[in-house]
Amino acid sequence: MNFVNWCEGVPSELRDDALWKVKAYQLALFAADIAWPDATKLMGDLRTRDLSDQMYRAVGSVSANIGEGYSRRSGRDRARFYEYALGSAREARDWYYKARHVLDPAVVDHRLRLFAQIIRLLLTMIPRQRRAQLSDGQIKEEQVRYDTYPFDPLEDAPLS
After folding, report:
1. For 99-141, what is each residue's pLDDT tens digit?
2. Are the CB atoms for 130 and 75 separated by under 8 Å?
3. Taking Cα atoms as reference points, which of 145, 71, 142, 151 lies closest to residue 118?
4. What is the pLDDT of residues 60-74, one digit of tens each?
5. Which of 29, 100, 102, 151 could be cross-linked to 63 through a Cys-Cys bond (beta carbons 3.0 to 4.6 Å apart)?
6. What are the extents of the domains in the chain?
7. Which CATH number fits domain 17-131: 2.10.70.10, 1.20.120.1200, 1.20.1080.10, 1.20.1440.60?
8. Total-model pTM
9. What's the Rg (C-alpha) of the chain?
10. For residue 74, what are the CA distances in angstroms to 6, 104, 111, 129?
11. How far apart are CA 107 and CA 109, in angstroms?
12. Cβ contact 66:81 at 8 Å
């Protein structure tokens, strides 16, 4: 599966939301989808059953916290939830590294690079939100361009 094909299959209810403009959210949601078979494979080994649960919770938390933060009124509140997402992204990356004894090396490499990119994006989003000022008490939904490290999430993502 690759990112472009995956995006085409995302329901319009998600793609038509202003949140969809946030690349970190797209990548985090993609990561959650492709983590499902990884977690399933880890569940098959008694030694990594608990790891599977922790890893999938961390992976799923990234997009959830970006989504919740995006809906907050102040830049400070947004930054706080983006920090939660950052912590979960780092946790997910850590669990993937620990899963390297069971998962295919190509899968682990892809996931480590994918989470590194999500982390880089969040590290640019957090300071911007801390500086953000809202006017008229409206939720601020601006389109932001993010610079990323040379990693192409559009390449085929290996599945477990």
Report:
1. 999 999 999 999 999 999 999 999 999 999 988 755 445 555 5
2. yes
3. 151
4. 999 999 999 999 988
5. 29
6. 17-131
7. 1.20.1440.60
8. 0.83
9. 16
10. 32, 42, 32, 8
11. 5
12. yes
- Do residues 61 and 85 touch, judged by C-beta distance below 8 A? yes
Q: Which residue has the tokens 């992976």?
A: 59
Both tokens of residue 101?
């004894």
Contacts of 141 (CB under 8 A, 6+ apart): 18, 21, 70
